[in-house]
Design brief:
It is a single chain. The protein has 6 helices and 4 strands. It starts with a strand and ends with a helix. It has about 120 residues and is an alpha+beta fold. A 4-stranded mixed sheet has the order 2-1-3-4, with helices on both faces.
Length: about 120
């Protein structure tokens, strides 16, 4: 399995993360939330690995939601959360980097250069 980075191409944090990977010569696939819909299986994997950090509560998309939608996103109802996510993927924290590198499993959320450097 290779690395997949999930996010939005024109996001500044995504640009930093992808530049970092390119500089390190790391090969990866890019899953663009603007061009593809995340599967429920992949979303559930994100939740299993990262928990509630998957939802970017600091972002504009989240802040635009009404209170009822925010309550659903804070609930344990995975199907209801996915129904919101699949149509509002920009509410997901980015980047998410999953896969393997040099026979090590990689699961990172957000871009912290020091943390990412430890894996390279």
């Amino acid at each position: 399995m290779m690395l997949i980075i999930y996010g939005i191409k024109n996001c500044n944090t995504m640009k930093k993360a992808m530049d970092f990977l390119h500089e390190k010569g790391v090969v990866f696939d890019f899953f663009d939330y603007k061009k593809s819909t995340l599967s429920q299986v992949d979303f559930e994997q994100f939740i299993t690995i990262f928990g509630e950090k998957v939802i970017n509560k600091q972002g504009l998309t989240y802040r635009k939601f009404d209170n009822q939608t925010k309550e659903v996103l804070a609930s344990d109802d995975g199907d209801a959360i996915y129904d919101i996510i699949k149509n509002n993927q920009s509410v997901l924290k980015r980047p998410i980097l999953l896969g393997s590198l040099n026979d090590k499993k990689v699961a990172l959320i957000g871009f912290d250069e020091n943390q990412w450097r430890l894996l390279m």
